[in-house]
Amino acid sequence: MVDMAIFRLNHAVLYVRDVAASVAFYRDVLGFGYTETGDAFPGAAFLRAPGSTNDHDLGLFQIGSQAAPSGAGRTSVGLYHLAWEVDTLGDLESLADALSQADALVGASDHGTTKSLYGKDPDGLEFEIVWIIPADLLTDEDRNKAGVSRLDLPAELAKYGRDARSGVGISRVG
Predict the structure, then answer these.
(1) Which of 3.10.180.10, 3.40.50.10400, 3.40.50.300, 3.40.50.620 would CATH assign to domain 11-66?
(2) What is this structure's pTM?
(3) Which of 20, 35, 53, 151 could bond to 108 as cystine, CB 3.0-4.6 Å?
(4) Would you say 131 and 115 are in contact if contact means Cβ atoms under 8 Å apart?
(5) What is the pLDDT of residues 44-63, one digit of tens each?
């Protein structure tokens, strides 16, 4: 057994057809910022999530318009999705609106202790945006929820409020 532990995902790198279109999506819809290191690599871009202290949270490498869609989960093994956490339920609501306006929202799920949106980027790569219920607001109903159900975001906003900060250390994420 190794005497060290990985404690979080630092960044993700995606192959995309058109780096400019992908940068526009992650910047304009999800609020990522373009980092200065992006200009050092032609056909690549490096983006930072709002509030992040990372050099970059997302790398994008252009492979061209001839690239086939990802077969992951249908015809090949591969990554299903990445999940990003938001600070408040109000942030989740704002992103639901932004994803809907961009025609990129493909689902919304209630996992009991977490509330999730699912979207697809311009290349059809799926991602999740999650709000974790703060431990001090968790109810027995939240903790004991089995399975996944449709997210009723207005009901969750009424229950927890827009400004409740995301919880930490909850292990049940979709």
Answers:
(1) 3.10.180.10
(2) 0.87
(3) 151
(4) yes
(5) 999 999 889 998 999 999 99
